[in-house]
Write a structure and sequence with these properties.
The chain is mostly helical. The protein has 1 helix and no strands. The chain has one helix spanning 2-30. The longest helix is centred in the middle third of the chain and has 29 residues, at 2-30. It is rod-shaped and about 45 Å long. The model has no long low-confidence stretch (mean pLDDT 94). One of its GO terms (biological process) is phosphoenolpyruvate-dependent sugar phosphotransferase system. It comes from Klebsiella variicola. Keywords: Phosphotransferase system, Sugar transport, Transferase, Transport.
């Protein structure tokens, strides 16, 4: 259960990082 939770947390943080990178890229295009 703990392993699954850790894996899920890792996936979530990876997705969040990609989302942030996309937002930064979009923000730079706008300016």
């Amino acid at each position: 259960l703990v392993l699954v939770h850790a894996q899920d947390h890792l996936m979530t943080s990876m997705l969040a990082r990609e989302l942030v990178a996309e937002l930064i890229e979009l923000h730079e295009k706008v300016q």
